[in-house]
Design goal:
TIM Barrel, binds phosphoenolpyruvate, 250 residues, eight-stranded parallel barrel, alpha/beta
């Protein structure tokens, strides 16, 4: 039985004050979320604040990326050992904004995935097709390629210790959400691809949907067999909306 999971991806949003308010709001409502696991992935500069505030609560935290080098001349980057200082549990890798805006290749994502695991974090591996891929019927090919890059480098067993997030890029921040059937088809494809290599890994890995998930569409998506929760951008910035999605996952 896979435990449902909702992950908030705050992206480059927030301030010291707004984060305090947001976390107070989420924590106030989390008592009702008894089954689902809840995580927030926050900007690096607020990890200290978030880790202090969430220590001892049921709300886990993580980062939005990690560099694959341990230390050195990598201006603007953050290493796994630095994240370790803030007791992160999760790290997002391969978000489409990293792939498309900052040129992270499948190989880069695989390297970051491996480093995240080496430091004991659970990578949240994002995969998903661009609008043009979607329109050309290339969704499965693109997602399979992104997944295979990780399996080829880290091995199939490594997938057992991660979370996969299927995020159609055309649905991220656009308000255009995939239908539950569209998302389920891709999730099932991912799971069956994994099952060919290791059925246990396929059964155990949680596969989240991401892309304009909101309280009013979350239930229909998460109800699908292979959708184990959500990776949420915009709606994770409002406590009420985020909690609505957590309740749907619950
Ligand atoms: C995301 O960026 O991972 C995401 C799913 O964003 P949104 O929920 O805003 O579409």
């Amino acid at each position: 039985m896979r435990r449902p999971l909702t992950v908030g991806n705050w992206k480059m949003n927030g301030s010291h004050d707004s984060i305090n308010e947001l976390l107070d709001g989420i924590l106030a409502g989390l008592g009702a979320v008894t089954k689902a696991e809840v995580v927030v992935c926050v900007p690096y500069v607020y990890l200290q604040q978030v880790s202090e505030k969430l220590k001892g609560t049921v709300l886990a935290w993580g980062a939005q990326n990690v560099n694959d080098n341990d230390a050195g001349a990598y201006t603007g980057e953050i290493s796994g050992s630095m994240l370790k200082d803030f007791n992160c549990r999760y790290v997002i890798v391969g978000h489409s904004e990293r792939r498309t805006m900052y040129g992270e290749s499948d190989g880069d994502v695989a390297a970051r995935f491996k480093v995240a695991q080496a430091y004991g974090f659970v990578p949240i591996l994002c995969v998903g097709e661009l609008l043009e891929d979607h329109e050309r019927g290339m969704t499965n090919e693109v997602v399979a390629r992104q997944l295979d890059a990780i399996i080829g480098d880290a091995g199939i067993n490594a997938i057992g210790d991660c979370v996969i997030a299927y995020e159609p890029v055309w649905a991220i921040g656009t308000g255009r959400v995939a239908t539950p059937e569209q998302a389920q088809e891709v999730h099932a494809m991912i799971r069956s691809r994994l099952a060919h290599l290791n059925p246990d890994v396929a059964t155990q890995v949680r596969i989240l949907y991401g892309g304009s998930m909101k309280p009013d569409n979350a239930g229909d998506l998460i109800r699908m067999n292979d959708i184990d929760g959500g990776l949420i951008g915009g709606a994770s910035l409002k406590a009420e909306d985020f909690l609505g999605i957590c309740m749907a996952a619950n």
